[in-house]
Amino acid sequence: MNGDSVSKRLQKELMELLMSNDKSVTAFPDGENLTRWLASIRGPDGTVYEDQQYKLSLEFGPNYPYSPPNVRFVSKCYHPNVDTRGVICLDILKEMWSPLLTVENLLLSIRSLLAG
């Protein structure tokens, strides 16, 4: 995809996130750079992560949405699928990525990972 296509897709996803009724996940571009976002995930209820707010960074490459974004926890998160650098081991961030997935889908999947 070219830069304009990536920008249009990210603008569309931002609007969907802003209009979403699910406030357990949020994400916004980091300043003027539309390819770098900051996200927030509320820890799932009934887990050790409950009442915690986790910050994540997302970086979208020139092939997005055909390649997954680079996502990592900025906040410390003690979970077997999150390494000490905040890198997340999740299949949809690798071989199971689909261009049909959105930022909201991705963040909700990471939140579900914390619940599991």
Automatic annotation (TrEMBL):
Coiled coil: none annotated. Transmembrane segments: none annotated. InterPro entries: Ub_conjugating_enzyme, UBC, UBQ-conjugating_AS, UBQ-conjugating_enzyme/RWD. Residues 5-116 form the UBC core domain. Keywords: ATP-binding, Nucleotide-binding, Transferase, Ubl conjugation pathway. SUPFAM superfamilies: UBC-like. GO terms for molecular function: ATP binding; transferase activity. The active site is at residue 89. The keyword Transferase applies. Belongs to the ubiquitin-conjugating enzyme family. This is Ubiquitin-conjugating enzyme E2 C isoform 3.
